[in-house]
Design a protein that fits this description.
The protein is mainly α and about 60 residues long. Helices cover about 70% and strands about 0% of the residues.
């Protein structure tokens, strides 16, 4: 490894799931506050899909 560069360690499954939980809590907070319009709904759906994909990657060791 070149001088000055450090190898990043992969986050543990627990760390990755904790991160996903925080992201999901943010989405849930917005849903609880009220979905403003169809565009907001679509944005929340996209974020939910991304969170789910991240969880799958975490379990598969792809992160």
């Amino acid at each position: 490894m070149p001088h000055g560069l450090t190898q990043q360690t992969k986050p543990s499954l627990e760390q990755q799931l904790t991160e996903a939980q925080a992201q999901l809590d943010e989405v849930l907070g917005e849903v609880t506050a009220g979905i403003r319009n169809p565009t907001h709904f679509d944005q929340l759906e996209e974020r939910g899909n991304a969170i789910g994909a991240g969880i799958r990657r975490a379990f598969r060791g792809e992160r």
